[in-house]
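On clarity, I found the account of how folds are encoded harder to follow than it need be. What matters is that the chain and its backbone geometry are given together, residue for residue. I therefore recommend that a typical entry be quoted early in the introduction. An entry of this sort, consisting of the sequence and the corresponding backbone structure tokens, reads as follows:
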Amino acid sequence: MTIHTAETTSRFIEINGLNIHYHDTEVGDRVLVMLHGGGPGASAWSNYRTNLPAFAATYRVIAFDAPHYGESDKPLSAYQDTDFYTEVFSQALDKLGVKRADFIGNSMGGTISMTMAMKRPDLVAKLVLMGPGGSPTMFTPMMTEGIKILGAFYQGEGPTREKLEAAVRIMVYDQSMVTPELIEARYQAATHPDLLKPREWKGHPMLNLWERLVGSPLQNPTLLIYGKEDRVIPWDTSLLLMRLLPNASLHVFPQCGHWAQLEKASEFNTLVHGFLEQSDD
């Protein structure tokens, strides 16, 4: 039995002069792409370490570090530009010979997944979106508590461990998940020297995604997943998406925050496996 770890699945690919890091299990007739969120210190493995091994028995799993994250290059331009990230991942999948794949996207990764489905419908089969960015809240005041904390990390006096701990704690309902080791690992990743250079935020495509969905509704079978206690992108953002995505279903986990794939890992893996294995008929 193959054991899939961060080290054994680690790969690099060059896209338009950028060195992009990704994890690849390499075996499987169906491809499952995992895209992480945009919080400080995020990476493919940190987001999906409890999920990638579970899906590797059935799928070839590919999990990318977006530019500016993980071990991928960190250019001065296009920080959190989900249109740019979509183009990078699209070219990477073409280069890897992937013709069609299912996509799992958390937060910013959910935005990228929907953008990919709009721009490359040939490439995208089913969508699993956990707390995806791009839809307004219906009941919760904007900006949300979590978005304010995440947005402040690089502002003011700059990054601190205290800010990083606040950013991680806002992500989860179960506070026991927040360990000193997790905080230190995310802090080291979030304070890479290349990330401390002045840059312009380019996350605007993430904010107006719902407007583009009005003009080009996605027909992909879609599973929306939220934590009931998500304080970053709360479940009520799903209400507009349920109107705009005609083939979408919704699952809300109780006692769960923004990291449903980690907080509810076993239930999440079972739920998503079932959805992906359903016939499209």
